[in-house]
Automatic annotation (TrEMBL):
It comes from the Bacteria. Belongs to the sigma-70 factor family. ECF subfamily. Residues 5-63 form the RNA polymerase sigma-70 region domain. This is Sigma-70 family RNA polymerase sigma factor. Pfam families: Sigma70_r2, Sigma70_r4_2. Residues 101-153 form the RNA polymerase sigma factor 70 region 4 type domain. The keyword Transcription regulation applies. InterPro entries: RNA_pol_sigma-70-like, RNA_pol_sigma-70_dom, RNA_pol_sigma70_ECF_RHOBA, RNA_pol_sigma70_r2, RNA_pol_sigma70_r4_t2, RNA_pol_sigma_r2, RNA_pol_sigma_r3/r4-like, WH-like_DNA-bd_sf.
Length: 167
């Protein structure tokens, strides 16, 4: 569970920041969210959507922060504006989740060598030159392969998302 929470930090931070823009308290709300995620870990059902579960908890933590801020009158936004920001953030979160699920599906469809290249470059954040040396290929050839794989992933993701819309 700790690994899942750690993997989602940048996503949760972005979600929280989108709901409380310009606030220096984003990190505090993120830490509160992490504490709640940890305390409620037993309520998460493995195999279900962790991002949706964590996002819901983050939204509740932002609402709690807003209530505390309103009590302190340090929040300058109108409640209607805050609600619109929250709705927009929720929509963005759902769109992001759909894209992430489509990406996972499309990555699984790649040939093993293509998936290895993507993982090397983006998950391990390693250089193409290193990958090219390891595979005995030129840097230019590996860069071209990666360009094609990225285009293929983009097209696959778009097809997946269009399929969801028409379904």
């Amino acid at each position: 569970m700790m690994a899942l929470i750690a993997q989602q930090q940048s996503i949760l931070r972005a979600l929280i920041r989108s709901m409380i823009p310009g606030s220096s308290e984003c990190e505090d709300v993120l830490q509160e969210t992490n504490l709640v995620l940890w305390r409620k870990r037993a309520t998460f059902t493995p195999g279900t959507n962790f991002n949706a579960w964590a996002g819901t908890i983050a939204r509740f933590q932002v609402m709690a922060w807003r209530q505390r801020s309103l009590k302190n009158q340090s929040l300058a936004f109108d409640e209607e504006v805050l609600e619109r920001l929250s709705q927009a953030a929720s929509t963005q979160w759902e769109n992001f989740q759909g894209r992430q699920e489509a990406l996972q599906h499309c990555l699984a469809q790649l040939a093993a060598d293509q998936r290895e290249l993507v993982e090397h470059r983006y998950f391990e954040r390693a250089s193409l030159a290193e990958f090219a040396r390891r595979k005995g290929r030129t840097h230019a050839a590996v860069r071209k392969i990666l360009e094609r794989v990225r285009a293929s992933l983009r097209d696959c993701i778009n097809r997946q998302l269009q399929g969801e819309v028409s379904a």
